[in-house]
TrEMBL record:
Species this protein is from: Brassica napus
Signal peptide location: none
Record-linked PANTHER family: PHEOPHYTINASE, CHLOROPLASTIC
Domain AB hydrolase-1: 116-402
Protein name: AB hydrolase-1 domain-containing protein
Pfam families found in the cross-reference section: Abhydrolase_6
InterPro entries according to UniProt: AB_hydrolase_1, AB_hydrolase_fold, PPH_chloroplastic
């Protein structure tokens, strides 16, 4: 077997228990000779390779034991000799009057490959999945969409009308905000940027743009929407991946779910904004749209501050300059909750046997892994991976690991379970009872590699045991910080 991302090596292997088992490994010397090596290469699924000593064969690194490393490919534009990155094609479609949906796609030539759809978190857009589009687009047909009211899916016209006196006053100031008028435009009547609207938008994208059932993945808010869509349209979903999914959104009662309670609130995110909300929005927007505030938020959600977020930062700043951004933000913040809560959507998915995979950054300051562990408790057989160090956006902070897991997860489902889940390539002896831990290493730039820790928790994993483990890990970090 010729390994990748390593010096040229050749391994003698034998077939045993439906997997390749290396016997010994030799290094091919430049002069043509052969040198015996005490290391072996073990071929795993999802294009990963494990390097370890011969005596490590046949046993997985468990409960933090990382004597062997799993070497996985880097991003296509960072790996020597890798195929070129998949080309990203931006596009848009007119969904509703003056509501144009922006999306990006890659891998369109992979006509027989599964379709994968990524949903973004709050305040970002399809650009946050560039590392998935360029990499996974080499094997699959990949889409990433901007929710309406965010990213590049903001309205193309002011959703409200203003009187002449208001217009004259606005001209004396800087660029006026859209949505601050006195009456809603006919096309914007009852428009509110909510979970239910985004669920309808995803349905449109899947049915009309993609045209077939998809593997759907979402980060933060996008995770909630992905689960919500799968709960209401299970026939359009082949599997759901939750990336630090937020389990809560919308703090006001839903008018369909609780009509009497909803009537107690005079405004629920529709246009135009009430006078008091306009003033509050102006004050809050001035603060949160400031580039320094945006930079501070990114610093919070990314654990590894060496991660290049310049492009993400500039795109977020660009979005805040749109005249509709402030009112859209207010609409989102005051929008009612969905007809289904996160817990109810999860139960609905469980009833319909929707396949779910969990991938969580362990150091997320907003949606910590405890929320992933709660989902794992409800779905014991769902694969649950934790990555460390990684924060709220693991797909952008450690895309190599997330892409590796996504490939393995999709292969597992497409093969009907014949292909093993990532980290289970060597069998599932006692996985149900325990957890598997492995150090993941991948190339980053020229001449250096990055490594992170990856855990896979078994179907009988204890929720309270996980809470205790998380507490102990936090305590260790605090004590280490004090000692430093």
């Amino acid at each position: 077997i010729i390994s990748q991302n390593l010096l040229p090596q050749c391994s003698l292997v034998t077939w045993s228990s439906n997997r390749l088992v290396p016997y010994r490994s030799n290094i091919l010397l430049p002069g043509g000779g052969i040198k015996k090596s005490r290391f072996v290469i073990r071929n795993g699924t999802s294009d990963g390779y494990v390097v370890g000593e011969n005596e490590d064969l046949g046993s997985l690194a468990r409960r933090g034991d990382s004597r062997s490393k799993l070497l996985i490919p880097g991003l296509p534009d960072q790996s020597n000799g890798e195929a070129s990155a998949a080309r990203i094609t931006p596009s848009h479609c007119e969904w509703k009057p003056n509501l144009s949906v922006h999306y990006e796609k890659s891998g369109c030539d992979n006509v027989e490959a599964p379709a994968v759809l990524f949903l973004p978190g709050f305040g970002v857009g399809s650009f946050h999945y560039e590392k998935q589009l360029t990499d996974l687009g080499r094997d699959y047909r990949v889409w990433a969409v901007d929710f309406v009211g965010q990213g590049l899916s903001l309205p193309t016209q002011d959703p409200t009308t203003t009187t002449m006196s208001e217009e004259a006053g606005a001209l004396e100031d800087s660029e006026p905000f859209w949505g601050f008028g006195d009456e809603a435009q006919p096309w914007a009547d009852q428009l509110v940027y909510s979970l239910d609207l985004w669920r309808e938008q995803v349905q449109y994208i899947v049915e009309e743009v993609i045209g077939e059932p998809v593997y759907i993945a979402g980060n933060s808010l996008g995770g909630y929407v992905a689960l919500y869509f799968a709960a209401t349209h299970p026939h359009l979903v082949k599997g759901v991946t939750l990336l630090n999914a937020t389990p809560f959104w919308g703090f006001f009662p839903n008018p369909v779910r609780s009509p009497r309670l909803a009537r107690l609130f005079p405004w629920s995110g529709t246009f135009p904004l009430p006078a008091r909300v306009k003033k509050l929005t102006e004050l809050v927007w001035q603060k949160i749209s400031d580039p320094e505030s945006i930079a501070e938020i990114l610093k919070q959600v990314y654990k590894d501050h060496s991660t290049d977020v310049d492009k993400v930062f500039s795109r977020i700043v660009e979005i805040t300059q749109h005249p509709a951004a402030a009112a859209s933000f207010a609409s989102i913040m005051f929008a009612p909750g969905g007809e289904l809560s996160f817990s109810e959507a999860l139960s609905r998915c469980k009833e319909n046997n929707v396949q779910i995979c969990l991938m969580y950054g362990r150091e997320d300051p907003w949606v910590g892994p405890i929320w992933g562990k709660k989902i794992k408790k409800e779905l014991p057989n769902a694969p649950y991976y934790e990555i460390s160090p990684a924060g709220h956006c693991p797909h952008d902070e450690v895309p190599e690991v997330v892409n590796y897991l996504m490939r393995g997860w999709i292969k597992h489902l497409e093969s009907g379970g014949f292909e093993a889940l990532p980290l289970l390539e060597d069998g599932e002896e006692d996985w149900e009872q325990s957890s598997i831990a492995r150090e993941m290493e991948f190339p980053r730039g020229e001449g250096w590699k990055k490594s992170v820790k990856l855990w896979l928790y078994g179907s009988k994993y204890s929720f309270w045991g996980g809470v205790g483990e998380a507490f102990r890990a936090s305590l260790v970090r605090v004590l280490r910080g004090r000692s430093v």
